Amino acid sequence: MRVSGKGLPLACLLVLFYSPVSDAWTSMLPSSIQALKGSCVVIPCSFTFPGSRDSWGGKFSVAWYQYRSRGYPEIYNSKSQGSILSEYQGRTEVLGDLEMGNCTLSINPVRSEDAMSYYVWINPDSVKHRFYDVTVRVDVADTPSQLEMSDPGLLTEGDRTLITCSTLHTCPLAPPTLTWNFVGGKAATVQERLAGGSWRTESGLSYVPSHKDHGKYLQCTATFPNQQQSSNGIYLQVKYSPKNAVVAVVGNPNLKEGDSVTLRCSSQSNPPAVSYRWFFGPRKAPLRAAGVGPEVTLADVRRDSGPYHCVAENDVGMGEDSPPTYLNVEYKPVILPQGNCTLSRTGEIVTCYCIAEGNPLPEIEWRLPNRTVPGEFNSSELQAASVSWGQAIIGILTGPTSSLTNVSCTATNQHGPSQITLPTIQAGDTTLLLMASGGAVGGLLFFSLLGTVIYKVTKSRKKGQKKEEDEEQEDPTLYVTDENGEQKTSLKVEKPSRSKKKEEQFNMYSKSKGGGSPAADNDLSTKAYESMAVAEDYENVSAGELTGLYGNLGNWQPASGTDQIYSNV
User: Fold this and answer.
1) Domain check: are 310 and 351 in the same one?
2) Bias regions of kind Basic and acidic residues — which residues (predicted)?
3) Backbone φ and ψ of 26, nearest 5°
4) pLDDT tens column, 162-175
5) Burial of 36: CB neighbours in 10 Å, binned 0-12, 13-18, 19+
């Protein structure tokens, strides 16, 4: 008989197996029963009587006795509580309906000294039947019985399963509570009555296994009324398709163009993966020469090789694509053809631009007929600055025409230098800008980087000009000597306003406001530069902030080709 839930209706305990009417008095008890110290024990008991019920007059009475060779020590009496042994008072109770032939006894809580034999007597005052011939032996245990768990065997991810946990006891009034150390499943508990006064409490855990459960210890714990606990568990074995695939470089990850490299695909799966698929490029084209093994060797890698992906498969199924893996292919600097030297409208100032890419990031150097200028330089005559992004670097050099003739740009990294002589163009030639802005984002990025470099150069030039002005400025107060030889202070000479000085100050990036103005005579810019406005607009924007406007672009690796830096951003 199985009863759901923790609480047991009293009726379930009082079901009789026999008719109380028979030819003679009989009592039925289990020969022995196991009790847990500190818990309760319910001893099933039934009896029969001869003749009809009416022949026995009033209600039945019952007494329970310890089985002793001498005397009749009572542990329960339905008529008088005063006659029972003091150590049993308040601990014994008959749960059954005597009128239905049920004399079931409860002892609660059980003590160690309760371990002995007992017997029942119906109507002890009048019935002379030898009830002591049928006894029950109560054995008291200090610890609960061991839990039993079902073994689900090898589970499969995604397939629902049921795992059961059960324990035996003899206290249906307060059965043990079963709990699981698992979150995510559904557990249901049932009580089942067995023969001989034993009960089974069973909990079934229904859940859908995940690959994360593989190797975990699943534990079931029974807590008894005396707060003692008993536990048991199993290690879960879950089959699942490959997870967390990743492509890694075998050996030195730093490569040079033309090298060979071996890639390995690894994943987590149970059972292990048996085949692999390889893909490359942004569209994940199949890598046909890769085969189905976990490793693939690539020959003659280029700077634009990859990215590479892999997919692992086992007998459960196919896993997900690995994240893209980019190769760190180092190469000698490449100077892009967009660089040139631009003459101002007056022909007095030259501004040179140089754009290069390489891995590692190259450094720019300017070669003049009689000297070499580093990428970061500032003097009263020449100013140079550069800004990098990813594997690209943009440099700018400005100075008088007399100093900047036959300018070459050199880009160098550990794999060697590259050099190009820059062509000279007149202001107003938009070749550089049109080539640089091959893509919408590329053009915007180019102007941002270029604006940053221009700002750095302009700031250096302005500092030099301010220093010269401060050195040339004199005391505006004049002293004169009159005809009597006395010295007098003249009227103070008017000092030019800052705004006026600023208008007259040389600004090679100011917008032309009309013919003949100093700004127009010295303008190095064309209308294509007007969007950058005055260089002061960049004073509060660092190179890092400008590049930050376009997201995390630091991992970009431009492919070979002259327009990749602008069109593939």
Assistant:
1) no
2) 485-505
3) -140, 150
4) 999 999 999 999 99
5) buried
